[in-house]
Amino acid sequence: MTDLKKIEALKELVFAQSNQHCFVERERYLNSLTVPEEKPEGYYADLVAGILDFVSTPIEDCDTFVGRVVEGPPEGDAPCPNRTLFAKGHITPDYQKLLEKGYCGILDEIRANAARLGTPAAASYARNAEIVIKAVGRFAQRYAAAAAAAGKHRAAGALSRVPLQPAYDLFSALQCIWLMHMIASCYVGSRDYGFGYMDEYLYPYYQMEKEKGTTDREIVLMLASFFVKPNEICGRHPHNYRQKPVLSHSAKQYVLLDGGKANHLSELILEASRISCMAQPIFTVILSENAPERFGQAVFDTMSVTTDKLQVYNCQLLKGFLRAKHMPDEIVERPAFTACCTADIYRHTCREEFYLPTAQLFCDVLYHHKFADKEAFLAAFGAAVTKACEDYLSESRYPEADWCRKVFVLDTLLLSTCNENCDYPPYGSKYRAKNIFLPGMATLGDSLCALDRLVFRGQISYERMMAALRADFEGYEDVYAEICACPKFGNDTDADCYTVAVADTMIGAVERAEHLPQEIVLPSLYSLERNNVWAPEIPATPDGRRSGQPISENQSPVYGADRKGMTALLNSLAKLPFERTAGGGLNLTFSAPVRGDILKALAKAYFEKGGLHMGITVLDRQTLKDAMVHPEKYRSLTVRLYGFSEYFVTLPEWQQLAVLERTAYEV
What we know:
- The protein is an alpha/beta fold.
- Among the domains are: 173 residues, no CATH class; 236 residues, no CATH class.
- The protein has a six-stranded mixed sheet with strand order 5-6-7-8-16-15. The protein has a four-stranded parallel sheet with strand order 11-12-13-14, with helices on one face. A two-stranded antiparallel sheet has the order 1-2.
- Strand 7, helix 12 and strand 8 form a beta-alpha-beta unit.
- Helix 4 packs antiparallel against helix 5, helix 7 packs parallel to helix 10 and helix 11 runs parallel beside helix 12.
């Protein structure tokens, strides 16, 4: 079987998986145990070891890198998945340290740090680390034996050394990463483990591989085989609909590439992504002005092929934001994201997040008070946002609310300062990344525009506007008509200033929230699906949106409000205060495929004006409508949602219709 045929066979296995099946051996082991009321010190480390000693080591003929999980229907009546052992995920592990030192080297560091600290807690941390690392070693050796028996001699050779010992070439590095990624996601942890800057930390192993005589074409196929593997662990349904009964359901797994540090391996990774071309992983490029021309063109040539599976960020804005947060150079130089367009402190912490109900707060302020002008309204709205943010930050500090990983002894071993402090996150981490998401920006901006132009300038009384909103505009058709005549965000008019004012107010409110020194508060113009699922609890808004209808998505205008073309849209967006945000996403939709040189020119112009992010979807409405009727014909059809790629036919109908409502541009 040729390498390309192996890759296609790997993909077929992914589509053959049942979304109703669980990781049945994991469930069988955990369900066989009686959970004690008083858990001994090494309880969770022993659970990890027990699972890894219990599960089998399956291998398929098409596997280049071995490591897969046995699936089957849930057994018995126990809840599935079993959460006796459960990690939140949402981290970018320090795979570079694992490759350079191996777990044996990491364990030596932990033991030395525990001896230096001399506390019972540090000694316990070291003992748990040893239990887990030895179990990982036994599992790797069993897989090495299985690989040898299956004729996978290169995988067998790699696993006889990694992950306990350092990697020695590109193949062994990738095999090491995959085994640990699979264990963390499927057996111990959960969703959204990122791969980080693979082109940077894998480059020395790429050079070793070249010294063995491996060609670039062989390396591309090796990488493509690796990039198919993450699709095996997450199912094909979105996180909010018909979830696969596993902890890692719908995992979004980012590969980061830094244009300013691009090397030849960066281009090979992009080439491999065009071959794998599945929903996972998402390739996230931090695009800088000093990126090599050849790399920049390769990025957008890849985007033109893989569309929703690659996104780009403005490096200058991200680094400026981190400097303003007084981050050290090691953090500033590696702006990072761990799924969902969500900022992360690279290799340092587990990401935490909170969706502020901004539209609900906006309506609460509007419906229960009366204001003379937009400045007074924005001040009250900002105060409400600050309070909601502070309430979240306060609640998240209680031990029972912390994403405390004392039970998650596996992924902690690949977070930087935890091993130094011999303590689990968040207490062992130097930083706590607190992402504060601010949905509905354009809906609120258009609402402020209508309030200012119609109410605060005296055309419609405050009382009449509020009566119209409470009546959902029934019987107030004249008010509704006046609102509809107001300009909307996304058309490069002076009315954009209202959405800019709302964004400034929300971000400023988050910045004013009191927080601890180690809490890195990261405001972000991002919605995920809250723009739809929160809709029933949001009353009518002054932009003409009726009660229960969706609010705007991410950084985008209200669906259909942008009517003057792509240039006008990007000009409007570039006015937003992106230098004060860390994440969020713009999803551009095209009606037909777009050449790489055109995408490059669009992104370059947008970023030069101050834009932060760009991801695309190519939307053929007739194809999508047919896919809703005949899903069996379109199993691999993907679209971009929020900050990642999803299979269109697996989305709930409301989400499919939301995709169809987007403005699709012709270029």
